[in-house]
Design a protein that fits this description.
The structure holds 2 protein chains of 2 kinds.
Chain A: E1 6-17, E2 20-31, E3 34-40, H1 46-54, E4 61-68, E5 71-73, E6 82-85, H2 97-108, H3 113-123, H4 139-151, E7 157-161, H5 169-183, E8 187-191, H6 195-198, E9 203-207
Parallel strand pairs in A: 3-8, 3-9, 6-7, 7-8
Antiparallel strand pairs in A: 1-2, 1-4, 4-5
Chain B: H1 8-26, H2 30-48, H3 55-74, H4 79-83, H5 87-93, H6 96-125, H7 133-158, H8 164-192, H9 197-221
Classes of the chains: A alpha/beta, B mainly alpha.
């Protein structure tokens, strides 16, 4: 469980993809612990905001701040402290579930990669498929792998985009149990339009505007 | 779960191992590269016979075969990540510089593997005179580092663009030309009894310059 205090702040942050609006200018302040759900119409910029928070996308205007404990992290170094699961996260199809997670743990410099991988796989109920190649996984199993990847390095901030996507009823129950364990002292931000997921959140933010498709 | 402060060295090493394992499982590049090298050398050997006294032809042919055998795979190191949508995963586990150096080391290893098969075959089939080994190997090493560095930098730059294939040819030509010219000239010189010091210095300086450019560029390359 990660005890460090997390603060995420956005100041007039917005993004354009060429001439199209990806995310309208928005400001917010979030603190750990807690689960925050971000809602909004298709194309309102939920996924764009998640990528910006993860440090994967530089906003066209405005800025975000991520503070963990007393340290403010630049976008470049956020990957060490952020767990990210999103539909755009793909894995190496020629590697197994375990090999993909072990690669992530070893690359991040985890001192006990095999222990971290085993725990992450167990938490999402992927034990029986751990040796299978990713190419052979169903969409639901792939989603479980994304969740395992997000929590693998015990991050202080979890960013989950459509986290229960493709999960069946059993998978959803596993996800809700997983989320309960993941809460701890963390800040968890979920981008979702699923009512069942909103109910798991302590706070909800609604993104306004139709987003992508609107002229800038 | 204790996490050590992620060292770039661990990340580079992990990425290199991942690349090797992926290549071994999929054989994306190695089979095609070796097939090209072997068939082209055999075809040239049948067509023109032994080129024992043509040091200029030998040097040019050696580097052209190495370049074309390796280039398709070298240029795709980053394209594969973009087309397989795994670049996000990579960016979430390592900083851009570590990713770039992991890829560069793999490209170098790939080139060396091709050379281990191609160079002895070339020397036998083309009837090349015995090289001055220290000079020959030094040129081969420096040329390989420069070639791998150039292909890695250009491959990273073009991976995010739409017309990748055409763009790679256009972008790589001016960057690869000095490497090829210096490598061919030095290889010819070592067969003709000349000195290779000037070309060797040029290749090393060029490789160092490309690595320095890589360090400056990679932090900014993959921001959407």
């Amino acid at each position: 469980m990660n005890p460090a205090r997390v603060e995420v702040e956005g100041e007039e942050v917005g993004h354009h993809y060429g001439r199209r609006v990806g995310l309208r200018s928005t400001s917010f302040r979030l603190e750990s612990p807690g689960v925050v759900a971000i809602r909004g119409a298709n194309g309102s910029g939920k996924s764009t905001l998640m990528r910006i928070l993860a440090g994967l996308l530089r906003p066209s205007h405005g800025r975000t701040r991520l503070r963990i404990g007393e340290r403010e992290l630049a976008a470049k170094g956020r990957f060490r402290h952020v767990g990210y699961a999103a539909p755009d996260l793909a894995f190496y199809p020629e590697f197994s579930v375990t090999e993909n997670l072990a690669f992530a743990a070893e690359t991040r410099g985890d001192s006990r990669p095999s222990v971290a991988v085993k725990e992450a796989v167990e938490q999402v109920g992927l034990q029986t498929r751990a040796a299978d190649r990713v190419a052979a996984l169903s969409s639901g199993m792939l989603q479980r792998l994304r969740l395992a990847f997000a929590l693998l390095h015990d991050p202080a901030l979890l960013l989950l985009d459509e986290p229960a996507n493709h999960l069946d009823e059993e998978g959803r129950v596993t996800f809700e149990t997983w989320l309960g364990r993941a809460r701890g002292g963390r800040l968890i931000v979920m981008a979702t339009n699923d009512e069942r997921e909103w109910r798991l959140a302590d706070r909800t933010i609604e993104l306004q505007g139709r987003g992508l498709g609107d002229p800038a | 779960m204790p996490i050590e402060r992620s060292s770039s060295r661990a990340a580079v090493w992990a990425i290199l191992r991942k690349e090797c394992r992926s290549e071994w499982r999929t054989r994306y590049g190695l089979n095609a590269a070796l097939l090209f090298a072997i068939t082209s050398l055999t075809a040239v050997s049948f067509a023109v016979g032994r080129l024992t006294d043509r040091h200029d032809m030998l040097a040019a042919l050696l580097w052209v075969v190495l370049l074309f055998a390796a280039l398709a795979s070298l240029s795709h190191a980053f394209v594969r990540e973009v087309e397989g949508r795994t670049l996000t995963l990579l960016r979430l586990v390592a900083d851009p510089t570590a990713i770039a150096f992991g890829k560069l080391l793999f490209n170098l290893l790939f080139l060396v593997t091709i050379e281990v098969v191609t160079v002895p075959l070339f020397l036998v089939l083309m009837g090349a005179p015995g090289p001055r080994w220290p000079a020959f190997l030094a040129v081969l090493a420096a040329g390989s580092v420069a070639l791998a560095a150039a292909a890695t930098v250009v491959g990273a730059i073009i991976s995010q663009t739409r017309g990748r294939g055409a763009l790679f040819a256009g972008a790589a030509f001016p960057i690869l030309l000095p490497v090829l010219a210096a490598a061919v000239s030095a290889t010819r010189a070592q067969w003709s009894g000349g000195t290779v010091d000037g070309e060797l210095r040029l290749l090393i300086a060029y490789a160092v310059a490309l690595l320095a450019v890589s360090l400056l560029l990679f932090d900014h390359l993959w921001e959407d």
